[in-house]
Each structure stands twice: as C-alpha cells, then as structure tokens.
C-alpha cells in the first residue's frame, strides 16, 4: 500500500461531503483510494460509439462540446485531458467524487485498457499525462505509439 503519498488530494478521516445521489460521501472511502498501488482503468474517447457518450447517459454532447473545443481527446476516470496529457478543468471535473488526476499520477502501476485507431489520441494523451503507465492494447495501436516516441 501507499504510505501517505497523495494525502493532499484526500480529505480528512471521518469527514463527510455531499454526494451525487445519496447526499453524502464517507471520506473514509475516498481515503482508501490513496492507498491503492495498482489500478485498472479504461481510456475513454469522445465518439458516438464510446461508452461515455453512448445515449448521453454519462455526459451529454452539449456539456462536452466546450471541452472538445479546448482540445479534449480522452478521459481516465472522467478526468478529461488533451493530447499532451494536460487535464482540462471543467464543470465535469468539479463534479467528480473519487481519485483525482494527481492520485492516478502517483499510483505505482495504472494499467490502461484501450485499443483501436479511434482511441489513439486518447491513449497518447493518457500516457503523456502519466494518467496510465502500463497499457493493454492491440498490436496496431501499440506499434503506432512506439513509432510516435522514436
């Protein structure tokens, strides 16, 4: 487990914060996130077929358009970033309850799972931003990423 790193991104033990549906979130649960040393995450992309955008149940195109205009290419844990890996501040980011982008960057091993040509820029941004440090993907995407770093 992690020994105190990332504590600045976590709340005080026993503190209760407003939550989206239940009304409160026990910060002890959030505190446990800081102890993670291995995480498996999906790398999202903004296209009509993506899980996040399908049926607009998670996000609507209306709320994502201003972020896309600022260069958004993907997300990890709904932390939206550009192709350089810069997390883009937004209302969406402010609504999140969970691991911050900084916590993802401090976890020993963050395994990103994504593939396909439509996710290339999303994966590239996640790697550049240190939101993931291990990748499970298809051969074509892996080769393209390796060629990019040469």
Computed CA radius of gyration, to the nearest angstrom: 16 Å
- Tell me the span between the first and last alpha carbons: 34 Å
Approximate strand percentage: 15-25%
**Which residue ranges are poorly predicted, with pLDDT under 50 across at least 5 consecutive positions?**
1-19
Q: Count the strands?
A: 8
Widest sheet, order of strands = 3-7-8
The rough form would be described as globular
Based on secondary structure, the structural category is: alpha/beta
Mean pLDDT: 82
Order of helices and strands: EEHEEHEEHHEHEH
Q: What portion of residues is helical? A: 25-40%
For the biggest sheet, the summary is: 3 strands, parallel
Q: How large is the count of helical segments?
A: 6
How does this model look, in words?
The protein is of the alpha/beta class and 150 residues long. 31% of the residues lie in helices and 19% in strands. The chain has six helices and eight strands. The strands form three sheets. The protein has a three-stranded parallel β-sheet, covered by helices on one side. The chain has a three-stranded antiparallel β-sheet with strand order 4-5-6. A two-stranded antiparallel ribbon has the order 1-2. β1 and β2 (25-26) form a beta hairpin.
């Amino acid at each position: 487990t992690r020994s105190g790193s990332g504590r600045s991104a976590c709340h005080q033990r026993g503190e209760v914060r407003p939550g989206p549906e239940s009304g409160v979130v026990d910060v002890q649960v959030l505190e446990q996130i800081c102890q993670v040393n291995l995480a498996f995450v999906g790398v999202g992309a903004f296209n009509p077929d993506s899980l996040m955008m399908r049926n607009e149940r998670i996000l609507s195109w209306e709320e994502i358009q201003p972020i896309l205009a600022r260069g958004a290419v993907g997300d990890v844990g709904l932390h939206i970033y550009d192709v350089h890996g810069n997390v883009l501040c937004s209302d969406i980011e402010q609504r999140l309850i969970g691991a911050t982008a900084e916590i993802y960057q401090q976890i020993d091993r963050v395994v990103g799972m994504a593939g396909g040509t439509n996710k290339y820029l999303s994966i590239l941004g996640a790697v550049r931003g240190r939101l993931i440090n291990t990748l499970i993907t298809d051969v074509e995407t892996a080769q393209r990423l390796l060629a990019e770093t040469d």
